[in-house]
Amino acid sequence: MPLQIVLNIIIAIMWMFLSESYTFTSFLVGYILGIILLFLLRRFVPDSFYMKRTWKFVQLILLFVRELVLSNLDILKYVYKPKQDMQPGIFALPIDVKTNFEITLLANLITLTPGTLSVVVSENHTKIYIHAMDIPDVQETINDIKNSFEKQIMEVTR
Amino acid sequence: MSGTWINFIFDIVICLFLLSGAFFLVSGSIGILRFPDVYTRLHAATKSSTLGVAGIMIGAFLFLYVENGIVSGKLLLGIFFVLLTAPVSGHMISRAAYRAGVPLWEKSVQDDYAEALEKEKKHQAQDS
To answer: A95: domain range?
Structure first.
């Protein structure tokens, strides 16, 4: 993948020199041309086309934003409820992701999902302890974290 | 305002972004005051501050672009870094609070970490 990115930047700079306008716009045009070239020549460059992973990453960011908005609406519900009858608590969630980067990403995502806040990552990196606003309400979110977030993070990083 | 209705629509969109951002920030602050313990307060602090700041910054970005034709990269970077740092600080504060022994709200129903922490302490006692 690094080779493809370097190639793409070289193509972009080359385009900048060929069109003799040294601005950000022409760099961007060159970069897009580079993407198209790499896509057409993907059989001859090592590794799979890197835009595939970039696309996955964009999807992850969109998921992140959607969850952020939802969680804010969720918090509003608790803020303006006259009676505070939620049942907060800390539960453990076993995780499959291994590297530090993945765990950081997952912990951040968990904090920004509705009703959950990651408190501690266990010493041996197998569990995340999560504080939930309303334990009975949170089962669905756990499934969400396990099935959609973790899977998508793994798709991006591996 | 220059009068064409496209500009009018842009103004309304900008106002919506700014107002919703401010609204989220205010309700986040109310949440910090109302909630019973550190952990639930952090819920309010981390979540609504990110969306509030993001909303206001997007509003400012659109305003600068529509009125003055400036593309302000700083504002976009600001959103990015707030999104990146707010959850981390929430995580660190709650971890530090737990380690320092701040109790959960008395109506909390579950605490898995207390057991794990106890086990860990026993291990350390056996080792030493």
So the answer is: 52-157
Q: Looking at the structure, tell me whether residues A35 and A59 fall in a common domain.
A: no
Residue A68, in any domain of the structure: yes
Residues 58-117 of B with CB under 8 A from A: 83-84, 86-88, 90-91, 94-95, 98, 104-105, 107-114, 116
Q: Where are the domains of chain B?
A: 5-127
A141 and chain B in contact, CB less than 8 A:
no
Look at residue A47 and tell me if it is in a domain: no
**Residues A53-89: tens digit of each pLDDT:** 888 888 888 888 888 888 888 888 888 888 777 778 7
Q: What is the per-residue pLDDT across A36-45, written as a single tens digit (0 to 9) for each?
A: 988 888 888 7
Predicted TM-score (pTM) of this structure:
0.75
ipTM of the complex: 0.71
Query: Is there a contact between B39 and B94 (Cβ–Cβ < 8 Å)?
Result: yes
Residue of B nearest to A110 (CA): B87
Radius of gyration over alpha carbons of chain B, in Å?
22
Would you call B30 and A133 a contact, using CB atoms and an 8 Å cutoff? no
Yes or no, beta carbons of A129 and B116 under 8 Å apart: yes
